[in-house]
TrEMBL record:
It is found in: Cell membrane. Pfam families: HATPase_c. Residues 87-114 form a coiled coil. It comes from Streptococcus danieliae. The chain crosses the membrane at residues 12-30, 36-57. GO terms for cellular component: plasma membrane. This is histidine kinase.
């Protein structure tokens, strides 16, 4: 403790010895009586010793408080300006750490919920494929449909992890949205054929965006349009300074629309039909926000839903 104190206040001791040396030099040069020098040094040393003892007492208590942990009752000891600045910095770092831990805990909870849901969803197409294999009824169209569902669930999980870890590799370029929608319609052709849903694509829209992530967001919207469409229905895709995907499906309750993009929210019709995961539109919204695009939903029950994506 004494060694730490000497190191802390070494400037004080150095200044004292320099002053004492200066007095000694002056007394020597002017041939002053040494009695005065001795008396001056004794007086100065006594005052200096009292000050150092006082500083050492305070230093000892501050170090003890810091080693044992700072409590509310001990804050009066740390009353120097530098102590207050240090305590304020510690409190700020503590708050930041607490916020980071809460955010990390929430991400972990969200990830656990998603993995549980994802594993549950994966069982359905896997069970269907297993049943077709056991019964020797491997219909190519049905197999393609189940494989596409598995691919979509895997993409959702991987992209959720990328977005959560902020490791998204956005690369902006001129994108022809019509080509993206044509590719998506080809990708989901088995679903369209299975439910005998007609599809139309009209217009054009070109913007500067990330092709891969925009395609992923639009695929979630198109997948929902197919999922909730009735057999023999129609999905219309209109491109004009934005993209509108309109279906003739079961629709969405008005009170559910404001919460469509909340994580895990399925809505009344989603729960009734047991098809919704609550992550598709949530992920689409997160991606579109980072692409600086806006998404709006209008719907009427039993008449259909229209989803519009355009620049903000």
């Amino acid at each position: 403790m004494i060694r730490m104190f000497l190191r802390e206040y070494r400037t004080f001791f150095l200044a004292y010895f320099l002053l004492a040396g200066s007095f000694l030099l002056l007394f020597y040069l002017y041939q002053l009586p040494w009695t005065f020098f001795v008396q001056s040094i004794l007086l100065a040393s006594t005052i200096f010793l009292i000050i150092m003892l006082s500083l050492f007492w305070k230093f000892f208590h501050r170090m003890k408080v810091l080693k044992d942990g700072i409590h509310e009752a001990d804050l009066y000891i740390l009353n120097r300006p530098i102590d207050r600045v240090y305590l304020a910095l510690l409190e700020k770092e503590k708050d930041e750490t607490r916020q980071q831990l809460l955010a990390y805990k929430k991400r972990e909870e969200d990830l656990q919920a998603l993995v549980k849901l994802w594993s549950h969803q994966m069982k359905v197409p896997l069970a269907a494929l297993s049943l077709m294999s056991q019964t020797k009824q491997l219909d190519p169209q049905s197999v393609d449909s189940q494989l596409l569902r598995l691919d979509n669930y895997q993409a959702n999980l991987l992209n959720y992890l990328k977005l959560s870890n902020q490791s998204s590799d956005f690369r902006f370029e001129e994108v022809d949205v019509r080509l993206i929608m044509v590719d998506l319609v080809k990708k989901y052709r088995t679903h369209f054929l299975h439910k005998q849903i007609a599809v139309s694509i009209d217009g054009d829209w070109t913007l500067k965006s990330d092709r891969k992530w925009l395609a992923f967001a639009l695929s979630q919207i198109l997948d929902n349009a197919i999922k909730y469409s009735s057999e023999g229905g129609l999905v219309q895709i209109l491109l004009d300074q934005g993209v509108t995907i309109r279906d003739q499906g079961i629709g969405i309750l008005a009170e559910d629309i404001p919460r469509l993009f909340d994580q895990g929210f399925t809505g009344f019709n989603g729960r009734e039909h047991q098809k919704a995961s609550g992550f598709g539109l949530y992920l689409a919204k997160r991606v579109l926000d980072q692409l600086e695009l806006d998404i709006q939903v209008t719907s009427q029950v039993d008449q259909g839903t229209a989803v519009v994506v355009r620049k903000k």
